[in-house]
Amino acid sequence: MSIPFYDGGIASGLLSGILFGYVLEAAGFGSPRKLTGQFSLKDFAVFKVMFTAVLVTAVGLYLLRLGGVIADNAVFIPTLFFWAIAVGGILIGAGFALGGYCPGTSVVGVASGRVDAVVFVAGMIAGTAVFAYLFDPLTSFYFAAKGPDAQRLPDLLGLPEWLILAVLIVIAMAGFVLGSKLERARGGPFTAKDVCAPDAGTGAEKSVSHTTQAMKA
Amino acid sequence: MTTSPRPFWPPLVAGFALGIALLATFLITGHGLGASGFITRLAAQISEWLAPAATAANSYFGPFVKAGAPLASWITWEVIGVLIGAYVGARSAGRSSVQVERGPQTSRGQRFAYAFIGGALVGFGARLARGCTSGIGLSGGATLAVAGFVFLAGFFIAGFVVSMLARRVWQ
């Protein structure tokens, strides 16, 4: 039996999803105020959690490859289409700052009772449909500036993978230290008490009663 | 409400746990975690219910509906799993409550408008990028794919710029 198992079944999907959802919720990623706190520098959880997860997985995959457990090209690596992926990232960053979620975290928002997350999901469905019906005129942009298939940073930079991982770990550690300083200076980070209790509402004294009414509706 | 919600996990702990979950997903399936792929399939399915002929003729949605049920896919089960995992976590930690979460200066109606517009930008952007923060940013970044880091650069730069321009949405 070789690893990965390439199992695309129901149990595999449910297992991955349950772990993913449980951890995102525990990180506080069901809350749009905590998520967007990243961009007002009040809460660095998005940077810290994402960067840590990327590095844990990247180091894990590297060691498993070194140990011969998985083959070189065993896992899916996306290919760069520069303009589509850069502009797509920009639109998702903009929509995240305005709407408060990304696709995965909006599912966590729905699961933890946030009505605004349901509206966000409806917006995503609409945006996806607009894309589909504009796909013909967008096709050349969609495929423009294609990079080499499944290109990775070690290929691009011509540096050994261990060195890139080491540099990323140093950047992550610097980001943790700097981020913690910045969030403390701004009265952050957001706690579960701030964003999860039903009467926490908007976090402002004056609108508490209004929000509580909204909640009962 | 008399009980207070249990605290979130520290970011380092949550990051390690998310990394382990992502690594396990790679070893089980050969690919990473996602979310927007499900929204694409859901949008294709809704489009087919509303306009079957136009959907079948559409060059983006067409292939999803021609193959049969667009929602019959691993990513659908994964998103159902996310709902279950997040629901169980939120309920058991006292962090679940029906609310419209918004900034102190923002009315409910404004919050819904921002959520819909933001969602539409994200839905469109995720199709352009061939994935979202989970699929390209997190999972792509974890394979050290150049595409993942180009995506993350665009995501963070735009997030900071739009957040500065639209400060009053959340503050």
Defining traits:
heterodimer, A: 217 residues, mainly alpha, 11 helices, 0% strand, globular, disordered C terminus, B: 171 residues
Explain what you see.
The complex is a heterodimer of chains A (217) and B (171). Chain A is an all-alpha fold and 217 residues long. Chain A has helices at 10-26, 32-36, 45-66, 82-99, 103-111, 115-133, 135-142, 153-157, 161-185, 192-195, 208-216. With 171 residues, chain B is mainly alpha-helical. Chain B contains 8 helices and no strands. Chains A and B meet through helix 1, helix 2, helix 3, helix 4 and helix 5 of A and helix 1, helix 2, helix 5, helix 6 and helix 7 of B.
* H/E element order of chain A: HHHHHHHHHHH
Return the structural class of chain A. Answer: mainly alpha
Radius of gyration of chain A: 20 Å
How would you characterize the largest beta sheet of chain A? none
Distance N terminus to C terminus of chain B? 25 Å
Mean pLDDT of chain B: 96
Helix content of chain A: 55-70%
Rg result of chain B: 19 Å
Largest interface: A-B, 143 and 131 residues
Quick synopsis:
The complex is a heterodimer of chains A (217) and B (171). By secondary structure, chain A is mainly alpha-helical. Helices cover 65% and strands 0% of the residues of chain A.
Question: In terms of topology, how is this protein built?
Answer:
The complex is a heterodimer of chains A (217) and B (171).
Chain A lengths: L9 H17 L5 H5 L8 H22 L15 H18 L3 H9 L3 H19 L1 H8 L10 H5 L3 H25 L6 H4 L12 H9 L1
Chain B lengths: L10 H19 L6 H15 L1 H6 L4 H5 L7 H19 L15 H22 L3 H10 L3 H20 L6
Helix pairs in contact in B: 7-8
